[in-house]
Amino acid sequence: MKLNIVFCFFFMSIISNAQKNTMAETFYKHDKYLSSDKLEGRFVGTKGNNDAASYIKKYFKKYGLKEFNNNYYQSFKVFVKEGINKAKSDSVSTQNVVGYIEGSDEKLKNEFIVIGAHYDHWGWGGSGSGSKKKDTIAIHNGADDNASGVSALLCILQEVSKLKIKPKRSIIFISFSGEEEGLLGSKYFINHLPVKKEAIKVMLNMDMVGRLNAEKQIYMGGAGTFPNGVELMKKLGQNSGLNPVVFAGDVGGSDHVSFYKASISAVGFHTGGHPQYHTPEDDIDLINFEGGALVSKYIYNALVSIANYDEELVFIKRD
């Protein structure tokens, strides 16, 4: 009997590791494409940016997301100085990629949890861009910023699609463009919501989650913007393989800020800064894919927990 129990634990361990490896491989696949030279840094208005949007749309469709207004794209204009990143005019078109899964509870499905990550980056960099090396004209692949966040988003979507019974609340998946130019995609979304603003209860955002450190720290700001959020995030850290660093406030500076400013609870996740930030050196060879899988699983658990929350989700303002 004892031998059977030991074997059972050993077998379950093998299954668990296989699942982690599978998610790590999926994370790697997505990051490799999105941060490839072929996409030339995904600058707004470029073919590379559009190709990235098309790639994300393909998986939104594959994993069963529904469209708003018969379209996965939410197009908008971005103004850039002529000549930056080979731009031919000061106005270019780009798009958010948006879809949703309907909740399983007849009442709560009218409430929405949003999970997102921006897919744009700085293209070839240069003067006028946000590059830290303005004198260098080279592709800024943004493997961490933010191909990693989109990779996590798609990994999480894949896991949600496998659920036989979907979470109680509906979930909006969104990949923003124009984040680097000043959170433009998320601001546009907030100003052109496909549902009532009051129906959106919590927003989870992933920006730079591909460089998990040796201490296995996943940082998050804004966990205290919804009831018992700090406690939830700490509890989810147990047996996750991660050491969550949880801030009730300190909302941060990525797309979730657009939601927080609109009085919507918002949490931003990241694995920390690094010297390659906004440089051509932010490449795939520095991405921690096993870490990316751990982070994706943690945020997936947070998403499902919040979407199934028994307590009423209300906005809590933080300093």
Automatic annotation (TrEMBL):
It comes from the Bacteria. Residues 1-18 form the signal peptide. Keywords: Signal. One of its GO terms (molecular function) is metalloexopeptidase activity. GO terms for biological process: proteolysis. Pfam families: Peptidase_M28. The keyword Signal applies. InterPro entries: M28_fam, Peptidase_M28. Residues 96-289 form the Peptidase M28 domain. This is Peptidase family M28.
